[in-house]
Fold this protein.
Amino acid sequence: MSPLSGRILVTGGAGFIGSALVWALNRRGLTNIVITDLLGSDEKWRNLTPLRFADYLEAGEFRRQLRESPASLGTFSCVFHLGACSATTERNASYLIDNNFEYTKELARWALNIGARFIYASSAATYGDGSRGMDDRLADLSQLRPLNMYGYSKHLFDVWADREGLLNRIVGVKYFNVFGPNEDHKGEMRSLVHKAFQQIQSTGIVQLFRSHRPDFRDGEQQRDFLYVKDAVEMTLHFADRAPEVGGLFNLGSGQANTWLALARALFGALQREPRIEFIDMPEVLRGKYQYFTLADIGKLRASGYAREMTPLSEAVRDYVQGHLVTQRRLGE
């Protein structure tokens, strides 16, 4: 029986990838979904309005019940733990340890105890600058050196799960540079596509960071850009088609594209001639900046995921024309 046949929990379900995952579940006719999140005072609640789900619980209340009376939460067949502080600039290490590390441990133990499939968001940020590789088959995770506290908080759980012998029973997905609809609430953590779209609307120009390394020209820093609609299909694969698979998996397009290519795709989607200017990277980012990321998705493919990725230009066009110009959220 598929883990998606029963009651499903999505933490961070009002957020960017979380709400996209609920949208993808809805497209499969699945609505027996409980969402938890921390709505706060931003606008991410709007991501929930077109979605169909059985219940919503604020993250603080959910965690209180998880600690004090877990039986009151009932049973679930699948837990997608996508809730976290994902700000790479967050400097409160104690907060990140509690929110991203300790809470994930509590959820993992509980999910396994009730027999639920547990799929959680790790991150490509665990790989640091990539000098030690971006290999999801790495046997010794302690070799990795994340560049920021967010990446380290995610890395700590991966190491803990490995040490506890849990990685053969749960799945950690390492998202690379995900972009797409429902990200507008993320502030400075929004993708370049969203930021640049607004720049073009107001000034007609896209600003990119200059390179501060001699081996990369301005705008030729490279990222593995992944469309959110592909990201959630990959995530669901581990519940729907590979429910017995465990371990860490890179989720990316398998291609590295330059920031220039991304910006030109955006101008193309808007049917405008590219106008790009370069600005200095803030000092606070220079020592923590990834100049090259590329997901080796061989392990993902070996798990049986056969679907083709959306090419970058097509993904940007779908996002821009289908969502940014029309201001449509997923499900609307």
